[in-house]
Amino acid sequence: MQLHIETDRLRIRALTIIDAGFMMQLMNTPTWIKNIGNRNVNDSTTASNYIANNIINSYHIYGFGLFLVVVKKDNQSAGICGIVKREGLVIPDLGFAMLPKYEGKGIATEASKAVVQYAKETLQLSQLAGITKADNIASIRVLEKVGMEFKEKIQLPQDANMFSLYTMALHKEA
Question: Tens digit of pLDDT for each residue in 43-64?
Fold first, then answer.
């Protein structure tokens, strides 16, 4: 998938198998495990398989997925941000996660605003959702900063957790 989004501080691009080491690192951070869950991605093989089967597959099926967020200043991978088609949600979901050293620096918000604009202008999506655990204040702030509003508490299939669902309209319905 060809994707290249730039903001003042960030480059956002499609993930590839080459990013397996980074994904393994990100998916094993305490914040990821607490808020997203343990996906048992503990080596480069399972990380490569996760990227191929979940992320790249999403690019082919839906035309979108999670993207790598790179900080221009030091050319370092900071996290991921993108759009996910999640089982149990009718509306595509804005998803993001940052390495601990990049949390609290506005990077998730900057990347999310760029991805929301991409969803609206390039993908022509009419709505976007965001889900998070009710105690994940940092993620709630990001969702609100991009223009989402709390809608309801939901539970997703095969997940015991309750989530707060946020939504926003990107285009007026005809």
Answer: 999 999 999 999 999 999 999 9
